[in-house]
């Protein structure tokens, strides 16, 4: 098999030899290391779907850590390994050396623990995308350049493209799928983020949702509560009281949330795990960015996703977001009436 790589990564002699002799039916055991939170777990799903397509006979193990158990895609792998990083030293040592006779190892994490597991696991070939290139020579046979300017889920697929694999587009997440003709007139807002500074203030969200309720009267406007206690919708109490088309949706389990999100018209949020879930269900999204590089979380293979950000990094205002929402709704649902009703005299 040809190694489909030129100058876009690292390839040593062992990696080139392995690729030249690769027979997919001979690959029996694959270890995928992915130690990440909710959103990045969602972005991992297309890689696992395509990995199964490319190596249909292989036993696939996904290795993570105890901190990141929510949304682990256990439905797409044969086994989940949780790396013990907090137990007794003997237990941690066993956990690091629990894998043997691995044909292919993918390190999709690039953390200290993932590198240690990569080092301790014997494998015929090891692939990764370390931020520091020195780890290519120390740990990997094939190294991929990790881009901040392409959607994370697509970057992961580069590991399989080196082998000549043709991924499906739009990407397949094996999740409930949004159908535009069946979408309810519901705009969802998720105003939280793992790092508070990545999201608008509660005052900004209240102002945005209150104004959107006026300008988009034919839609129900729903603030989705998060799983943490502090991710409550109580701050929106006054807006809910003023507008019949504004409600707060209680937190939901992952499976229920996926189906509910897929039946919504659009999600408005910052860089959050919930936005990644919306991307995984192909639900239209309007992302709000001012700290995170937007391109890494903005799929361009579908026309139903957009991003609001300023080139100078300023925080987008209510007017910017409402304009982006109007343009997205018109583009995605052209059969619906003009969605926005501006106040008299407003441009």
Structure description:
This protein has helices at 13-20, 38-54, 89-96, 112-120, 134-139, 152-156, 158-161, 202-215, 237-242, 254-262, 273-280, 318-332; strands spanning 9-11, 29-33, 59-65, 79-83, 102-107, 123-128, 142-144, 186-190, 220-224, 246-249, 266-269, 285-288, 305-308. By secondary structure, it is of the alpha/beta class. The protein has 2 domains: 9-161, Rossmann fold; 180-332, Rossmann fold (3-Layer(aba) Sandwich), CATH 3.40.50. Strands 1-7-6-5-2-3-4 form a 7-stranded mixed beta sheet. The protein has a 6-stranded parallel beta sheet with strand order 10-9-8-11-12-13, with helices on both faces. Helix 2 (38-54) packs parallel to helix 11 (273-280) and helix 8 packs across helix 12. The protein is elongated, with a radius of gyration of 22 Å. The N and C termini lie far apart (60 Å). 39% of the residues are buried. The model has no long low-confidence stretch (mean pLDDT 92).
Write the layout of secondary structure elements.
Blueprint: E1 9-11, H1 13-20, E2 29-33, H2 38-54, E3 59-65, E4 79-83, H3 89-96, E5 102-107, H4 112-120, E6 123-128, H5 134-139, E7 142-144, H6 152-156, H7 158-161, E8 186-190, H8 202-215, E9 220-224, H9 237-242, E10 246-249, H10 254-262, E11 266-269, H11 273-280, E12 285-288, E13 305-308, H12 318-332
Parallel strand pairs: 2-3, 2-5, 3-4, 5-6, 6-7, 8-9, 8-11, 9-10, 11-12, 12-13
Antiparallel strand pairs: 1-7
């Amino acid at each position: 098999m040809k190694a489909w790589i030129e100058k876009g990564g690292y390839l040593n002699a062992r990696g080139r030899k392995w690729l030249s002799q690769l027979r997919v039916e001979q690959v029996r055991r694959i270890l995928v290391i992915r130690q990440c939170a909710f959103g990045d777990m969602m972005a991992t799903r297309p890689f696992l779907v395509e990995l199964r397509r490319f190596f249909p006979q292989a036993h696939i193990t996904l290795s993570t850590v105890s901190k990141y158990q929510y949304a682990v895609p256990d439905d797409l792998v044969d086994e989940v390994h949780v790396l013990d990083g907090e137990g007794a030293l003997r237990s941690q040592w066993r956990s690091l050396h629990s894998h043997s006779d691995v044909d292919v190892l993918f390190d999709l994490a690039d953390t200290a623990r993932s590198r240690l597991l990569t080092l301790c696991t014997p494998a015929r070939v090891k692939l990764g995308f370390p931020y520091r290139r020195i780890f290519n020579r120390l740990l990997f046979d094939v190294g991929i350049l990790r881009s901040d300017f392409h959607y994370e889920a697509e970057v992961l697929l580069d590991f399989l493209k080196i082998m000549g694999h043709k991924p499906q587009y739009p990407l397949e997440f094996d999740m409930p799928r949004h159908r535009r003709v069946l979408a309810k007139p519901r705009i969802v807002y998720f105003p939280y983020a793992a790092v508070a500074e990545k999201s608008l203030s509660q005052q900004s969200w209240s102002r945005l949702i209150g104004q959107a309720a006026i300008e988009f009267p034919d839609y129900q406007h729903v603030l989705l509560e998060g799983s943490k206690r502090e991710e409550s919708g109580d701050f929106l109490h006054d807006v809910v009281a003023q507008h019949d088309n504004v409600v707060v949706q209680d937190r939901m389990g992952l499976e229920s949330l996926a189906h509910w999100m897929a039946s919504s018209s659009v999600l408005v949020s910052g860089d959050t795990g919930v936005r990644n879930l919306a991307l995984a269900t192909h639900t239209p999204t309007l992302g709000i960015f001012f700290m995170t590089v937007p391109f890494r979380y903005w799929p361009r293979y579908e026309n139903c996703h957009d991003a609001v950000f300023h080139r100078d990094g300023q925080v987008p205002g209510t007017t910017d977001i409402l304009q982006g929402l109007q343009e997205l709704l018109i583009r995605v649902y052209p059969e619906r009436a003009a969605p926005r009703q501006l106040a008299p005299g407003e441009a």
